[in-house]
Structures are given as structure tokens and as C-alpha cells.
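Progress against Task 2.4 (sequence-to-structure conversion) is shown through the following example record, which the project officer requested during the mid-term review.
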Amino acid sequence: MRELIADTLTLVETERILRSNDLILDRLGQHGIEQSELLPLVQSNLSYVNRRCSAVCHYEQERCRRILPILVGTSAGPSLHISFGNPSARVPLDELSTVSVSSIMRTWRAACDKLKAAGFSPRGLAVFELHLLQPLESSALWEPHLHAVLWDVPADAARKAFRVTVPEDINIRRRSTHVQMVNDLPGLLNYMTKFRATVEVQYRAANGSLPWRSNRLTGEQAEAWMLFHSRHTIAQLVTFLGIDGSALRRPMTLELATTQGRSGCRRASFSQRRP
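C-alpha cells generated for the chain above:
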């Protein structure tokens, strides 16, 4: 039996998810992927979800956003937001296929093991994120990293455990770890699960400084981001420590209810647009 959560997708939300999924399939189809391989990547019937799809699916993303607060709801108390990654893991535009989610997750587990060895009992979760880095005077790079929430660990101990040694020849955004107290846990979880294709662009300000701003990815780079996420599931991009997150990967569990009507299914126009 399908297990639903209290949140119900409105008619507008359902239509938005279906339209977004159709757009994703159209854009990925331009890469020569067969329709039989494309269709399983996203949910086609939001009124009856009986399988887990890829991380590029907007229903899977929305479900993750809504059930993470449920899964971590019992983890009360002060928490830390940890943003970390290894600048050495950045890769050029044409080497995105070499980025390993499991390798980044091992970094998280290794740091947590250090905290356990130091006598702490950390609980938390981490979410993989991938964005493009566009320096002002050098080539663009894909930058894999993690955002995490951690309980039962002091900030100084977390900084020490997650510290990364950055090679001297890397002189762009050398800071690899940032730790701060969480003031708004629901807001942070929503931020961590935005699953948005973005580019961090460096620019020269009027005062001569070189700050960064975040923009949406477009064109071929956005499609490369979609293709990467189509090869992973949400459960592969989210890892838990001391929290039961098994519901995230199970079908028919904690699904989002939809309003009644035709909008629960993908419109037939998608198959008509395929060549």
C-alpha cells in the first residue's frame, strides 16, 4: 500500500513538475538517448508512484525536500551547517563524467569517523551538490562538494575533522570548509536540497575586488548537469549518520499526494514531440 505524507501537491505544483520533467526529457533527448532509456528517468504519473526515478526528476527532488524534515525531526538541539569539498576534486568542463559522488561521500564518512575516534557521537546528514565555477581569468571547472547538518559535535572539533589541505598551486577559492551554527533548520534543509544547476561567476567589482555571484546554468552546461544527475538517484546524493533515512530510497513510502484530476499524469504531448 502506498504511504502518503500530509503534504499534498496542489494542481499548480503538479503541473509545474510535469512540465519540468517534460523539458528535461526533451533536452536530454537531444543527446541521442533513446526514448526507452529516457522515460524511466522521471515520474510520469504523480498520482501513483511505484518506483524511484533519477535525481534529475523534479518529483523526486520535491519529495526529498518535503520528507527530510520528517526524517530528521527527532534530531533536536543545536546543529552545525558544514559546507566542504576538496578543491583538488574540481574537473574541467569535458571531464564531468569523472566526478565520483561516492568519493565525495567517503570524505564525509572519514571526517565523521575522526569525530567518533575523538569521543563524539555525531548525527547528521550530507547532500551532494555540483556547480560550475567560472573564474575571471581562467577556464571553468566543475566543483563537487557537500552541504551537511551535524548534531552533537562542537564547532571547533568539526572544523578540525573536516579540514582539507589545499595544494599550493590552487589559488582560486582556496577555502574548502565552512562551519557555522544553524539558526533556521527548515530553511537550511530546503537550501541543501535545491538541486539547481548554477554557476559561480567571478567578477571585478568597482573597488577592484574579485567577488563571486551565483547564476543559473544555461545551454550545453545545463544539459551536462542534467545528464550527470540523470545517472544518479536522490538516495545516492544524500547520506545519513545516526538517522534512519531508508525511506528516501524506498518506493511507495512517504510519497506526495496529488490533487484529483488529469494533471497527475504526464501529458501525451511529450511522446508526440519525440522524433
